[in-house]
């Protein structure tokens, strides 16, 4: 894996080292901690919890080294998890796939989440340097694309907000429950979603007791939600907020219902959509909160319908670093290799 | 004042004791701390900060005694602040006003916020025992009703969420900027809004790191927002959330704009509405956050308009205990007696 | 197990259901949630994460029923974990051990931590109703008593503060490094240490941003630390504090060093004491913090020696609900049955 | 004032603008926000609360400009508050005092807190460039030095930890209650004490739910505590900790009592020491917590004596930005100019 020192990378590494069937063969870092080979339990002491007695010797994969595609290929991994932003991912993915015996890839960045390069270019503000791979990339949301993951060479792991919003929207959109009016998704996220980089607004004193909205009308997960839920982009408003907590996303999605849709039809749409899902749980009539899902790979969804039957409010909750990033990445990896979806995740 | 031991009561007492023109002549409690006469700096040590040296003697008004209308009237107050729920307020208001020389009243509860008793009865689930006073009560939002406050005998102090939502909505509604589609107000509040009562979900371990939605389609501030912003109730969806912090409300309001409304018209509507307002500040194009208003009587409002010009998102922030309760109550008191609106509030 | 709805009980249940060799055969509750048979994933939704797909059926043991010794014995457990206070533990332990084929017991309360009943009676303020079992009970701190645990019938699981303090003190006391002056242990704990009961000082608004000392000169873990570290009680001062966070204990222990003791001797004392320990990690020269151990069964210890060589400050950190309660209980259970010490704990 | 954009500077500015007798004539910044003239309500929106209606025009002093001694002198201030670290303070103080009509100075840094330059040089690791001013500087702790402040030209404002520790120690040291054994001060501080600078350990995700000790045996406030409490340096151990909160210091000080000292003598020592103090409050037998003093200029002190009468534990609490910095600076300013000590501080 690449990017082990970031928050998502740490969560992934913690689960990989205790996975019953997988083995971490290379831990590379592109940023802090990447300046030399070091045991990752020294760089990230909390991770050492998973590696047994502190005096034990660690296999080579547990040394963190600066990441390069060549070094990664030398470790001969079956699958490479890229826990880095979209810019390095755009370099790494083609480089890895160009190898004689390329590994399979789970890319946690936003680089390969759209089917058209133009959409990427508009929302990420840069050209897409590997558009030939977009058609092949499978969007790694097992709830929707489980079958395709088994054979995928390149899996594009969903954005954290997108998973929260799509869990609310996709069952309604595909079942015809959605009315023609606009959908509004008001999402609240803990600070780890912004990563480890130092920023004024992430200073403890600035964030404790604070809350703010950001990225109005321009957050990159907006078109991702639309594309993978099946909602036309022009009918979606998505507003993220920063919560004074470390982890978790709570998304409150306001959905117009089509005329005549009943509460039973809504419930059936959710039940059918998630009947096979390992990690999406229906909590209705109870609404989920962040504690129900913190540190787990679950995404919980509950909803209420307005007295006049014309509006539904769905509340979804997930841990942005687990189901919103590293956990779902591992779930995808499990499905790519035919393991139990939950291996390493309970 | 009545209700000095609650969170709003404490905030009010703290400001009253340093008010240049007012004097706290009676501090009564209906709940905890109300079982006998005690100096309020002993019951509420943090309040003593406002009363000078710890060894100093305090005037009689600074002893907390169990509240009764008769005892309150005996102190001959010019104005009584009722910092209690709507049930006791419904008893106290008529009792006080029936006195030979009745005091004026600022009621912080929801008892007198609607013009029709039926609306109260539907949303508060109990009959209104003093409907004859509803027509007289002035809704104490100085931004809208400043002139009427000067002569008011009974002021009904607005709900915390209602002030946050109405700050966003009222300028647009009265200026014709609102389109015909539904308005959604997604509000987030700190835990002090729920009061000092002990509840499982307010236990520190349950709320730290948590966030949840509650009261979907049924929060009592919904009709209050509609009535005082001028929005038809059936076009408003209001959803409150509980934040893992102690104080502050951030409300994100999604507003459809009428066809042809320009950004300049929107800005003008806000500027005109708040040109005379002491405590509502326009922050646009910046958006407010909780820290901008914490511990102050300010309500900040910013907004953005969608690229297609059809939707506006307004973000408002206030301190639920100050502009959302005690601060606005004192601001109302200042206006009732011709003091500077900001006396005791800066 | 008994006491599944408390914070420690939940942590234990979560680990038991994914333990490779153990099986949870009875989940009983003495307090909230104990009023009728319910699936524990309904009472405690976050626990459901460990039980597989939400639609799956659960074995009988995963129904929470009101606890009675008879019902517990009927489930024929090999070992019973008592996650309740000392009063019910004093009733349950003799009742369970009186059975024809008694289960082994891990008692998480303070009921059997002292070798003399008089000490219990003085510090817990009540007579000890089962003094005949005190000699038999093994103090379940594997770092010190690992060998005795294998055959123990009754294991008394250590207090959370006591484990943190003894990790710092015991190696120094047994190696002769301790000087004759007083030892001071200043400990800081998250709020979950106080349990789920509702208290004014645990209300979110009261604890957020707060910190306080409590129990000066009278906390019950004081004699427990003395007895099991080997320090005379009259030379120990122990002061707990309440931190504005949910979990974790950081203990700062000020230790006088005997004349002539060198830094090397100190380091050797710690290394020897914990050479075989699975879950105590030496971090010196780095000092531990709460994040290093949160959600893990590790206790970390670091220290510094004063420039004049006469004083050592040890800092120890653990998760009060894991190494400080449920995790150590399971570690003890593992050792009692010959499993790997870490089974279910990584 | 200089340093208005730091946390202490903001607190001072907020109080100065509402001070009944003082006027802020120059707001200068040495760091962020100092790159050009800007209204400080734009740089620091929360400060605008104190400046009246948002549309009001501000006097020249409320523009933040990059700080230089010449520009400061041009504003002809009666007193200059230096809210900057010791390095710039060492440059500014001599420069200001060299003016033909020099202003008086309150320096919030550590530059002039010791009477000997050697002590500064040892603990601050740099030569002292203005040792000639050390004898003149008055240590600005009004509880001890009130009389000298009236005539002081240069006031050295105490460190936040030092005020907390000395409040516990000084009454005992000067009254002969202190025994000969070592004193230990274990202090816990919120994150604002570390300033606005970005650091990994102050990132919200790193500090929420965390707690750590730092600076063992080497924090700079150690000799400051010793010098101004009258305790020999070699008998003092001072250990600071970082709390997961924004503001406040709680110091737990372990004090050996001299043989024969009674509880009454201890109480008398504290009462006499603080009989005239405006802002130090005795809470014994109750112990203070952070909420009692947050956002106020009070320092609270409580204590307990061990059953054998040989040890006292004092707990002191203050707001590190107010009594620990800006509030005490303003209190000193008030005393320098003959104002009420509490002007602008209640």
Terminal residue distance of chain A: 21 Å
Rg of chain A, Cα atoms, Å: 20 Å
Would you tell me the structural class of the helices and strands of chain A? alpha/beta
Report the order of strands and helices of chain A: HEEHEHEHEHEHEHEHEHEEHEEEH
Written overview of the protein:
The structure is a homotetramer of 346-residue chains. Helix content of chain A is 29%, strand content 18%. Chain A has 346 residues and is an alpha/beta fold. A seven-stranded mixed β-sheet of chain A has the order 9-10-8-11-14-13-12. In chain A, helix 1 crosses helix 11. Chain A starts with 6 loop residues before the first helix and ends in a 10-residue tail after the last helix. About 2% of the residues of chain A have low confidence. Chains C and D meet through strand 8, strand 9, strand 10, strand 11 and strand 14 of C and strand 8, strand 9, strand 10, strand 11 and strand 14 of D.
Quick rundown:
The structure is a homotetramer of 346-residue chains. The first copy, chain A, is an alpha/beta fold and 346 residues long.
Essential attributes:
homotetramer; 346 residues; alpha/beta; 29% helix; 18% strand; globular
Mind sketching the topology for me?
The structure is a homotetramer of 346-residue chains.
Chain A: H1 7-16, E1 27-29, E2 38-39, H2 40-43, E3 63-66, H3 69-74, E4 79-82, H4 86-97, E5 104-107, H5 117-124, E6 138-139, H6 142-149, E7 154-156, H7 160-174, E8 183-189, H8 204-207, E9 212-213, H9 221-229, E10 236-242, E11 249-256, H10 263-273, E12 280-282, E13 299-305, E14 311-318, H11 322-336
Parallel strand pairs in A: 1-3, 4-5, 5-7, 6-7, 8-10, 12-13
Antiparallel strand pairs in A: 2-3, 8-11, 9-10, 11-14, 13-14
Helix pairs in contact in A: 1-11, 7-9, 7-10
């Amino acid at each position: 894996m690449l990017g082990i020192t970031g928050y998502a990378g740490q969560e992934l590494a913690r689960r990989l080292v205790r996975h019953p069937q997988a083995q971490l063969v290379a831990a590379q870092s592109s940023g802090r901690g990447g300046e030399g080979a070091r045991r990752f339990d020294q760089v990230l002491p909390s991770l050492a919890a998973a590696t047994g007695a502190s005096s034990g010797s660690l296999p080579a994969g547990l040394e963190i080294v600066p990441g390069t595609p060549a070094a990664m290929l030398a470790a001969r991994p079956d699958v490479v998890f890229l826990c880095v932003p979209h810019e390095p991912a755009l370099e790494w993915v083609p480089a890895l796939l160009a190898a004689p015996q390329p590994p399979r890839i789970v890319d946690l960045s936003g680089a390969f989440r759209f089917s058209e390069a133009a959409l990427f270019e508009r929302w990420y503000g840069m050209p897409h340097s590997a558009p030939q791979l977009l058609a092949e990339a499978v969007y790694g949301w097992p709830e929707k694309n489980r079958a395709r993951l088994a054979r995928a060479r390149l899996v594009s792991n969903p954005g954290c907000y997108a998973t929260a919003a799509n869990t609310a929207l996709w069952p309604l959109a595909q079942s015809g429950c959605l009315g023609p009016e606009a959908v509004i998704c008001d999402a609240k996220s803990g600070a780890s979603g912004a990563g480890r980089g130092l920023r004024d607004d992430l200073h403890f004193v600035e964030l404790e007791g604070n809350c703010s909205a950001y990225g109005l009308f321009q957050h990159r997960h907006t078109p991702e939600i639309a594309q993978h839920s099946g909602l036309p982009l022009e009918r979606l408003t998505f507003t993220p907020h920063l919560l004074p907590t470390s982890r978790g996303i709570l998304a409150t999605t306001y959905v117009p219902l089509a005329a005549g849709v009943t509460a039973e039809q809504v419930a059936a749409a959710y039940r059918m959509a998630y009947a096979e899902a390992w990690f999406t749980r229906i909590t209705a009539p109870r609404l989920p909160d962040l504690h129900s899902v913190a540190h787990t790979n679950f995404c919980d969804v509950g909803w209420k319908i307005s007295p006049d039957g014309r509006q539904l409010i769905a509340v979804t909750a997930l841990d942005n670093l687990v189901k919103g990033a590293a956990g779902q990445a591992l779930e995808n990896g499990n499905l790519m290799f035919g393991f139990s979806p939950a291996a390493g995740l309970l």
